[in-house]
């Protein structure tokens, strides 16, 4: 296949060429997906040798139709003329389809001192030692470009990582250099929700139950008789039923209310409810037992005849 477009200038020390691009899987070199190396035709090697391009050879790839730019290295010069084979993840970054035209020119990049990476998922941080895995994976890369998304394969999984920042320039070489690596939070990372802070409250003091103060109940003691006799126990009230005439049968004995002072017995109480013996009568009975007082003109009668 002939080249779509060729750019040669014998008086220039730069290499620039247009090629049609295809994934590296088309030539059964899928292992190149783990890096940024491309396959170029033999004619490119001849031109690079003629221009005395310094090693390591680094290139700038650009997609004119989408204004996308990236950088890469070269592994072999065995591709068919007019074609190059590049990793598929690079084609995705540059919005290239199979057979699209890509511009390739040599580039001289400064050695990197700092790179900031951002994984797409938190799964990458769950690896036991992500920095060690990343260091091993980046050995397959020649350079890094700000804005690119690289792929790191580990344990049969593919992890995509964005190049957020590079120093000292937007594109750096990472071949035989000590580069500081920093990580940004993954794209799907969510900060754990903090529980709402509860306002400090004074400790609750258990209230003592109110002490039960007994109420004063008058005449709640036991009754005592004035005559010295023992007081009869209160008579329990008995529930009665009415007869056919509606009258209630009387109960034997009189009822006494508990909690009242008893000044005498009302056993002989009349039916109308009035007691026979009053307090004064009780006093008279007690006075009758005393010796009779002197009464005038109560003796025997004597006649003068």
Mean pLDDT: 76
Helix content: 10-25%
Which percent band covers the strand fraction?
15-25%
* SSE topology string: EEEHEEEHEEHEEEEEH
Find the count of extended strands (DSSP E, 2+ residues).
Answer: 13
For the report, how would you describe the main beta sheet?
7 strands, mixed
Low-confidence stretches: 1-11, 237-258, 260-265, 273-277
Outline type? rod-shaped
Output the structural class: alpha+beta
Radius of gyration: 61 Å
Cα distance spanning the termini: 198 Å
Tally of individual helices: 4
SSE layout:
Elements: E1 5-7, E2 16-23, E3 37-39, H1 42-50, E4 58-63, E5 68-76, E6 83-86, H2 88-93, E7 101-107, E8 114-119, H3 130-137, E9 143-145, E10 149-154, E11 157-167, E12 171-173, E13 180-183, H4 279-288
Description:
It is a single chain. This protein is of the alpha+beta class. The chain has four helices and 13 strands. The strands form three sheets. Strands 1, 2, 3, 4, 5, 6 and 7 form a seven-stranded mixed sheet that branches. It is rod-shaped.
